[in-house]
Amino acid sequence: MAGGAWLAARPYGQPFPQWRQQGSTDPNRKAGRPITAPGRHRSSRKRFLVALLAAATLGGGTLIALDTAAHPARAADGCAPNEATPMGKYWLNNNTWGSGSGSGWTCTWATYQSGNTIGWGTNHDWTGAPESVKSYASSVLGWHWGWKSNATGLPVRVSAKTPVRAKWSYKVKESRPGAYNVAYDLWLHDRPDTDWQSRPKHEVMVWLAKGGGAAPLGTRQQRVRIAGASWDLYAGRTDWNVYSFVRVGDTTASDLDLNDFLQALVRRGLVAPADYLSGVEAGTEAFTGKAQLDTSAYEVNVG
């Protein structure tokens, strides 16, 4: 990325630059789960057409509905690699950071926004290395190699134990079974004043569901109990520490205080109380297969 000013001035909907290699300077690199070095393949992208249907008022908030079947002549939205779609304090990231390990496409679209609650969807079709993530289509709140909104409530210091209440209802439909997860992705830094070039200190994932043998980076440490459910905790390392909580038993709806997971890591000496939570994302990591995730309601409230 050319610089923080470039990120702030970049219009939504324009793709990020094509990086020569996946490295710490790539703004869409994730700690995804490549166990072996991915091969390089030319990928094709299916164009997914979206069009604005209507805007109305709902409970004092603005409801924006999108019809994915209308106006087929309109230029496609949400299918360009790493394309951004604004949704109030959030933005949707069609993050195809691992596309070099396979061939295929991912598309992401907005369906509605009402206050702090949003609906959105994504679909994908990928082949290639089964152990490597191809894309992480996601909703972003806060930092993701820079900032797009100041109204996020982030960053917050871990020692403050600020509630980070996240509610998510969704469903997954597979057309061709493959490997995927549905997960939150939290970014932590050792300082509050982060920008486009700030390398994370920790990445914390919370897996709500998985299929096709998908597994997190690193090794299993132990089973823990958080928010009335059991989770397997994994620890790994890329350019930063990666901790993954994998739910024992899938769910299609969650109401969590994500701070509970951070405090669990603090108690184990893995995250420092002086660290800062900078970003909260929610989406699906696609390894292989053809599937669609539809989010009927999603919101995150900090504090």
Q: What key attributes describe this structure?
A:
single chain, 303 residues, 2 helices, globular
Topology of this structure?
Layout: H1 4-9, E1 51-58, E2 61-67, E3 84-87, E4 90-95, E5 102-114, E6 117-128, E7 135-142, E8 156-157, E9 164-176, E10 180-189, E11 202-211, E12 219-226, E13 229-237, E14 241-247, E15 253-257, H2 259-267, E16 276-286, E17 289-302
Parallel strand pairs: 11-14
Antiparallel strand pairs: 1-2, 3-4, 4-7, 5-6, 6-17, 7-16, 8-16, 9-15, 9-17, 10-11, 10-16, 12-13, 13-14
Explain the overall architecture.
This protein has 303 residues and is mainly β. The chain has helices spanning 4-9, 259-267; strands at residues 51-58, 61-67, 84-87, 90-95, 102-114, 117-128, 135-142, 156-157, 164-176, 180-189, 202-211, 219-226, 229-237, 241-247, 253-257, 276-286, 289-302. Strands 3, 4, 7, 8, 10, 11, 12, 13, 14 and 16 form a 10-stranded mixed sheet that branches. The protein has a 5-stranded antiparallel sheet with strand order 5-6-17-9-15. The radius of gyration is 18 Å and the shape is globular. Residues 1-27 and 31-76 have low confidence and may be disordered.
